[in-house]
Design goal:
This protein is an alpha/beta fold. Helices cover 27% and strands 28% of the residues. The strands form two sheets. The protein has a seven-stranded mixed β-sheet, with helices on both faces. A two-stranded antiparallel ribbon has the order 6-7. α6 runs parallel beside α8. The two termini are 33 Å apart.
Length: 235
């Protein structure tokens, strides 16, 4: 897990384009935005809300109330500074510690959080519990072909090594100059875990760099970095 409360690490994260410019600077947003369901008049939960960009977007789309949680107090402080709104409530809380009140939200968002969770299905079950019938779970998680890569970096020849794909579990990688712990989950674990929980999958998309970015980063077309999934609570 990354410690965003560490001032040096947080400063490095704050310098990233997605931190400085918001959703339009996030490579996944063009695809994720199209999967965002109707939220007008509805309650939304954002798990690992970071700076609160998705919370703000939900309010702009007419959400009645939005709850954004993040385990980092620095993240929540920044969310309150950048994306404060009367209809948004921010809380310092981890995904594992949140109460997930039953039948409360019409949409739960999780963007680039769940690859830091070792066991997905208990979290899926809590999300299912907190959604209203017909509610949606919109998730963006690091793609298994990315998390299975050795140290999550390209080889000297420019290829992307996929190593021990069928051995899920802890992976160590370097991000913003720090060693961080993530968890590799296979595609079967990610998708079938949702199905076993009771969700109906309504969209599965592998994230591609926006077309305007591809000339500057051709290597990012070699493998997907992220996986978008939208799933519906059936009852």
């Amino acid at each position: 897990m990354m410690d965003y409360n560490d001032p040096d690490f947080f400063a490095a994260y704050a310098s990233m384009d997605r931190s400085r410019y918001g959703l339009e600077a996030a490579g996944e947003w063009p695809q994720m935005k199209k999967l965002f369901p109707e939220v007008k008049g509805k309650d939304v939960l954002d798990l690992g809300c970071g700076y609160g960009w998705h919370c703000r977007y939900a309010v702009e789309q007419g959400a009645a109330h939005v709850t954004g949680i993040d385990r980092s107090s620095r993240m929540i402080e920044e969310a309150k500074r950048r994306n404060a709104e009367d209809r948004i409530r921010y809380r310092v809380c981890s995904v594992q510690d949140f109460a997930f009140p039953e039948n409360t939200y019409s949409l739960v968002i999780s963007n680039l959080v769940l690859h830091y969770v070792e066991d997905l299905e208990p979290v899926y079950a809590r999300i299912y519990r907190t959604l209203l019938p017909g509610g949606m779970f919109l998730m963006n998680i690091e793609h298994p072909s990315f998390t299975a890569g050795r140290r999550q970096e390209f080889a000297p020849d420019g290829s992307w090594p996929v190593v021990d794909y069928f051995y899920p579990g802890e992976r160590q990688t370097v991000f913003l100059g720090r060693t961080v712990t993530k968890y590799h989950h296979t595609l079967t674990q990610i998708l079938m875990g949702l199905i076993r929980t009771g969700f109906r999958l309504t969209a599965v998309e592998e994230v591609m760099p926006p077309e305007a970015w591809r000339a500057a980063m051709p290597e990012e077309m070699q493998r997907p970095m992220m996986l978008l999934v939208r799933a519906e609570k059936m009852s």
